[in-house]
Amino acid sequence: MSDYIIKHTESSVILENITEFSLSQIFNCGQCFRFNPVGEHTYGGVAFSKYIEVSQHENAVILNHVTIDEFCTLWCDYFDLKTEYAEIIKSFSYDTYLTSASEFSSGLRILRQEPWETLCSFIISQNNNIPRIKGIIETLSKTYGEKVYEKDGKEYFSFPSAKTLAGVGEEAIFRLRTGFRAKYIFDAANKVSSGEIDLTQIFSMNTNDAMQYLQKICGVGPKVASCVLLFAYHKYDAFPMDVWVKKILSAHYPKGTTAEYFGPFAGIAQQCLFYYERCSCGVFLNTKKEVTL
DNA sequence: GGGCAGGTCTAAG
DNA sequence: CTTAGACCTGCC
């Protein structure tokens, strides 16, 4: 992995000989709600207020609308390209079920997403389904974000800042069909924009302290907090305990198995187990798009 | 049409 | 400390 080849033009970066990288796994494992298929083997979306398109053909990945400088300072980390996933997967060999899951999910990478957007997204995710989660995030961005790109009449928007959402008020957030989550989003926006919660500080906190800290926000419990820590801060030991993982644990592991059992990369193990389980249930095969692939 | 969705809050024991 | 219910909404 470390010896992939980087080439570039003025506005695109090409990565050759890349391994442990699958766009469909990365964007369909449920960590990210902002990228959608825009063509054959291509996903487009907005992150860090920039629109990019990413295509993959076997071991070659092309990032469009990306300069080599932006790749080095942002997208390389966004796609977690400095981490040796092959080594991590190898470290799971003590567990046969996890080995199967991680080999099946070997193209999965934990994206390094924006803390504020990730926090909001997973507040929205509670007691909700993926199509609606995506819809709400899209509406929030369209209504209160800024237009960052336009193509074929389709407009793309950044995710609104905490300050913006605090400013528009709970009622306005509720009107976007966010339901009972409106007051949670508003509380998060207030605490973050006022500095009561400093999202930057979390980078230097340990996972336990960060879990407690994030849960000061109304509507943030252990599941949402651990998703934020894993998907925005790369705290790989954060272990989101959702209904699927509970199901997996009760079906394949002894009673009382905890996150600690999975070690320092428990979060990555969780994603592999989650993806493996959901694929075997056919959850990701339900859309017409996926069936044709 | 009713149940359900990648949780969390609140009110009770 | 643990455990039910309720919760907005939209899509299967």
Describe this structure in words.
A 6-stranded antiparallel beta sheet has the order 1-2-6-5-4-3, with no helix packed on it. A two-stranded antiparallel sheet has the order 7-8. It has 293 residues and is α+β, with helices and mostly antiparallel strands. The chain has helices at 23-28, 68-78, 85-90, 96-104, 115-125, 130-144, 162-168, 170-178, 182-194, 207-214, 222-231, 243-252, 266-280, 288-292, and strands at residues 5-8, 12-16, 35-39, 42-47, 50-57, 60-64, 147-151, 154-157. The protein has 14 helices and 8 strands. The protein is globular, with a radius of gyration of 19 Å. The structure holds a DNA duplex (13 and 12 nucleotides).
Ordered list of secondary-structure elements with their pairings:
Blueprint: E1 5-8, E2 12-16, H1 23-28, E3 35-39, E4 42-47, E5 50-57, E6 60-64, H2 68-78, H3 85-90, H4 96-104, H5 115-125, H6 130-144, E7 147-151, E8 154-157, H7 162-168, H8 170-178, H9 182-194, H10 207-214, H11 222-231, H12 243-252, H13 266-280, H14 288-292
Antiparallel strand pairs: 1-2, 2-6, 3-4, 4-5, 5-6, 7-8
The chain binds a DNA duplex (13 and 12 nucleotides) through helix 5, helix 6, helix 8, helix 11 and helix 12.
